[in-house]
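Worked example 2:
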Amino acid sequence: MSAPRLNLALQGGGAHGAFTWGVLDALLEDGRFAFDGLSGTSAGAMNAVVMAQGWMDGGRDGARAALRRFWTALGDTMPPGVTRQDVDGGVHLTPMVKMWMAWAHYVTPAQFNPLDVNPLRTLLAEQVDFERLRRGCPFRLFVAATHADSGRLRMFDARELSIDALLASGCLPTVFHAPRIDGQTYWDGGYAGNPAVFPLLRGGRAADTLLVLLSPLEWPPAQPTDTARALHARVAEIAFTAAFRREMQALAHERAERVPRVHRAWHRWLPRTLGGDPPEHRFHLVEAGPALENLAGETRLAVSAKFFETLHLLGREAATRWLARHADAVGRRDSVDLAAKFG
């Protein structure tokens, strides 16, 4: 029998995307699922594209190797002095980097970095063959960006993929030069869809989607917002997940209204000619929140090889727990209650 097919919706979160690397590493190593569609934003898009590149080179093992190569090289792009680690393992940005972040509110990237020096562009050019991906991507691939002039979500599929499209997906306009594609300016996809789920529900062969989320769906009650820094961090967190939450809320509502709850168990098995519904899409969830909730928001910019390895391990552990508890649900039922999480 063929392996159950699974879509992946990968949320962005800067350096915290190394957690998603760990999740993907565990899923690829497990080998139980075939992958159909990948939708990613920012770091989620980087993971999706690198996974597709590695799969073309060598299947599952090639994808695992490509992801490790990417995150290892990314960790090596930053010189010492960007992050510091406490004795208890806590990670923080150094005062110099925090000062630079404060300047970003008053200086444009063109003024602060007039030559547009971007190590990530060089790294992607070295590790990803975009022309080859456009010709023969092994998955349905979707990269989210935000059209700067209208605020609309722009989804680049595999046929449109380019290094600029991928950089646009992770472009914080106060920090990086915004890519221009076909004369249009694009910013971080998190403003409009983080991640965008709807492309995965159209025209694919998988009826199951695994959401890999880096931002918490609920913040711990004890997490304070009584300082300016904490308040700004919470506002940014909400802003970068609002579109995704609204999309999932709409899906949860649509599912609840489509068929009366008491009839749903038998109604879905009727032939469509007799009034039955097409097979309902199923959802699954791996959350980083429980593992990362104590990390400061600033650590999304903490480019550090050691930090990446820590997050990778946490992602593997989370995926391993999900596989043990819910892998058998793929192809059969939801393993997350959309109404409870998003409704």
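The chain has a mean pLDDT of 85. The longest helix spans residues 43-75.
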